[in-house]
Structures are given as C-alpha cells and as structure tokens.
Batch of 3 targets.
Target 1
Amino acid sequence: MKKQIKQKLFEGLPVIDAEESITLHVTPIDVKFANKKDPKSCAAAKAGQRELKRDVRVFISRTYVKEKDHWVRYKTPMSAQKEIVSFDRGASFEPGEYTIKPFSQSDRLGAYKPTDENHRNRKGNGIRKKLHYTGMIRERSKYDLSIKDKKGNK
C-alpha cells in the first residue's frame, strides 16, 4: 500500500515545486528599501515582487513565489544564500542577477527519504554528524522538511 502524502501548506496555501528557473535582478534600490532578517522584504524578495508582480518570500534555503491559490517552491541559490547571510548580519546585499532553480527530483516534495531506522552512515555505526547552523540570520522556512532545528525537531 502506497503511503499517503500529506499536502504541505505555507501561509495557509498549498505548496508545489517549481518546474522552471526564474532570474531575479536585484538593484541598488531593492537593497536600499530592504529589511534585514525579513524573508518578505529583503532585497531578493523586493526584486521578486517588483519583477514578478507577486508575493515572494526568500528564506536561506527556500524561496516561495505566490500564485493565485498556491505557493511555488524554489531552491535559493548558494550565491543568494551568501548575500542573505551578509545582509542579515549588517553588511550590504550585492546587487546582481540571481537564478533561482527548481529542486532536483530527490529533493522535491513527496520524494522518498530514508528514515534513521533504515538508513545508516557509510560506516554503519549509526552515529550522525553534528550539524552547524548559521546564526544571526533570518528564520528558516517553517515548512522546510529537510532541516531540523537545534532541538532536533522538524
């Protein structure tokens, strides 16, 4: 029997994975009117709202673009992640072109991910590495299933 996939919600609306990339052009004006540690009004979100004429939320690892009745989920590129960390810690967000891509098949919503019971590290001893979490930046997306908080909660 196939496991039923629970619909993911973001701000009360369903979430689907993106199919195509989008490119955001962050301008100095976007940076000037952006707010630190705020996924809906950072420089990248401002650029997305200006160019796409839609609500945009940019988290450290996920970007959401609102359509009429759902959110489309993208993977925030590493180049933008570095700028977000810098910006949230008090420096500037470098204006430029940022291409936001869809997730790979293995990272899409509903993709099979082994649980701790049936997946061990390569040595087979079940010991997990401690993860490092970047501090002093905006909150992580509450709907990011692949990242646990510091207490080990999803």
Target 2
Amino acid sequence: MPRHCQDEVPAAPTRLCESCFHTRPLAEFRRRQRGSEHRVRQCRQCHNEFERYRRAAVRSRLSKRHIARDLARVRAASSSNRLKALCEEIVRGYGGTHGFAKAWITSMHDDLQRGGFAALRHLEATMRLIQHCERDRPDYSQMSDEQLEAMLTSPR
C-alpha cells in the first residue's frame, strides 16, 4: 500500500440537518432505534430545542385545563368552609399564592381575549369569591373599640 494512503485518516461521515441546514458529523444525529444504524434527520441540538418547545406547549395546555377545573370547583362549592378548604388546596397545588395568581392571570388574559364561556368562567369564580368574602366579613359597626383593637393585634 502506498505510504500517502496510510497517513490519511478517513473523514468522519456527515449529514445535513433538515432543520438548521448545517452539515454535522453523523454522531450529532440520534439513532432511530437502539442498536440501529439509521439516524433521524434532525441534529441533536435542533431536536432538543424542538422538544423543549413541545414540552412547554403541553405544560401550558395542562395548566389551562387545571385552572378551568379549579374555577369550576370554586363556583360549585356548596359552603363557605368547603370554599375555604378548596382555595387552600388550590393554592398549595400551584406552589403558593404567587404561583396560583400567575397561572390564573395568564389563563384569564388568554380567555378574555378569546371571549365566550371561558371568560365567563373567570368572572363567575371571581364573583363567588367576593360573595364568600362579603358573607364572612364581620360587621365592624357593631364591634366595640376593644374588639377592633384585638382584631388588629391578633395574628391570623
């Protein structure tokens, strides 16, 4: 064998990514199945970016579904005690009041833009919470100064 042929290292096989149109080494493309030599048409970087986008879309749909379910449960709560327990459960499920408020505001904004029954669901749940707060609010006009002072100093 001629000497110049021994010194040359064969070039690594490459493939064109059909998403970003960059030519990359074959190792940058995922296998279709384990043990198979067949490769997908997207490079790993494009595939990972697409998967992040797809998972975010799934999480968004799930969040909207959960908010809709929770709002329906708030509207249907039969008593103030049940509503209070339900609200505590919902807030815990979203990781606190900030997480719940953020999810609700995002969902409400999207639903108000579209209009229809989805927007009405938010308004009904808000009205139900206002009714609950009004019903459980003490009548301050009937309270003595000592009772009012005790309310201000006692932790909730």
Target 3
Amino acid sequence: MPHALFPTAFGTCGLAWNDAGLTRFSLPEASAELTARRLGGAGPAVAVGEAPPAVQDVIARAQRHLGGDLQDFSAVALDTSRVSAFELQVYVRTRAIPAGQVGTYGRIAADLGLGPETARAVGAALGANPWPLVVPCHRVVAASGKMTGFSAPGGVRTKTRLLALEGAELLSE
C-alpha cells in the first residue's frame, strides 16, 4: 500500500491507501520519519502530486482543516476490511459528529442501541481508530465533558487542540 506524507499547520501528517480507500491516516508525530512509521509499514512513499486524485483531495482538505478552514470528511472512502463490525458501527456514528460539536462514549453506545456498560468498548474502538481526523475520534469526550485518552500522537493535548481549532466548547477545571 502506498503512502504519502504532507505538511500541515499541525506538522507532517501521513496517509496510506489502496483501491478500496484510505487504510490509515496519521496526525503528526515528533518527526516525519515517526509519522511514516505510524502508517504501519505502508508500502512505497509517493509524492503528493503522484497520488490518485481522491487521495490528493483528502490531503488538500486535511491541510485546509488543520489550517482552520474546517472540512467534512464523512464521505472519504475508507478500507474497512481490517476493522470489526462493532468498530465499523462506532466509526460510522463518530463520522456523523460535525466539527465544533462533541459526543460522548455513552451517547454513541446508546445510538447503537447498546447499554451504558458498552461505553468503554466504544472508547476502545476509538482508541484503535486507524483514521484520526477522518474518523473524528477527537470529538468524543467523557460524559463529564472531560478530555480523556487520545491514542493519536500528542494524546489529549492534540485532542484539545483539534477541538479548539473546530470551535468546540471546552470545559476547564
């Protein structure tokens, strides 16, 4: 699977793809090399201008989004062949949360017709999200409104930074 790295206002992001869609998306690590590694051994590096048009579009939109021109990624094609049926349900629901708004783990569980005891399973699914930003797991917070774990590079700091960029109401302690 080819991959591309590209600059954004947040740092160097990366994505990998195949014919079905994006296989991974990475928010910036401490270095471009670490971002490439996070893509999980993706195939050859491709210059942005040589990527397929749909991939170039996602790259341009990610650059705009992280620069403050908010984008909707809900229609971006994803290769979901490596996620479980439950994870896919969680990701579909999470993609419906618009920029500037937040949902909770419990609300996603309820929307899926599940009880509150599955909120942790929702959190685990989001922790395994291979497409942060495209599947906006940063928009999911604890029922209290607190920023909880974020598995993308930078952790909760990145989550808070993304939510602030999107104009979400954030609670301070």
